[in-house]
Write a structure and sequence with these properties.
Layout (H helix, E strand, L loop, with lengths): L47 H7 L30 H15 L3 H8 L5 H8 L9 H9 L8 H12 L2
Helix pairs in contact: 2-6, 3-4, 3-5
């Protein structure tokens, strides 16, 4: 006894007949596509994936490729004024906003050691203070140079001791 899909039978004198359930809807490539009233042309006709393939990859987009150093945005928050965890997280969030970057772009710029959710947690007030290397990579991803990290690390230590 067959269960599930209808049994297809083909009489010698006509088109194929379906079982009791009737014909099924076409699937995959056989499915009719919605038509557009205005045909696309040029780049607009390309799918997003095709557009990405035609663009030259940036060095940071190539796996294992070099990461272009970003320049820090002007008017950096002063890490010397940070004394609590909340102040540290507020200044990190302000740095991200001034750099005008998404969390995913910060991950790419920092080398990808942490996920975007880890960086989101580093600036969220309801999350605990992350390990020192998380904000360090976050700062690098925002364009802070390695020689400018020491005051931020001191701020992290002050915030940790004032919890």
């Amino acid at each position: 006894m067959h269960q599930g899909r209808p049994i297809r039978s083909t009489p010698a004198d006509g088109p194929p007949r379906m079982g009791a359930a009737g014909p099924s809807a076409p699937r995959g490539r056989d499915r009719p596509r919605a038509s557009r009233s205005v045909p696309r042309s040029g780049v607009a006709a390309m799918t997003p994936a095709a557009r990405r393939r035609t663009q030259a990859p940036t060095p940071s987009a190539v796996p294992g490729g070099p990461v272009e150093p970003r320049t820090a945005p002007p008017d950096l928050p002063d890490p010397a004024l940070i004394g609590t965890v909340a102040e540290l997280k507020t200044r990190l969030a302000a740095l991200k906003e001034r750099a005008d970057l998404s969390y995913r772009s910060i991950v790419r710029a920092s080398g990808g050691a942490y996920s975007h959710t880890t960086f989101q947690g580093a600036v969220r007030a309801d999350r605990p203070l992350p390990r020192l290397d998380v904000p360090r990579d976050f700062l690098r991803g925002c364009g802070v140079a390695d020689d400018e990290l020491a005051p931020w690390e001191d701020a992290w230590h002050r915030a940790r001791s004032n919890r």
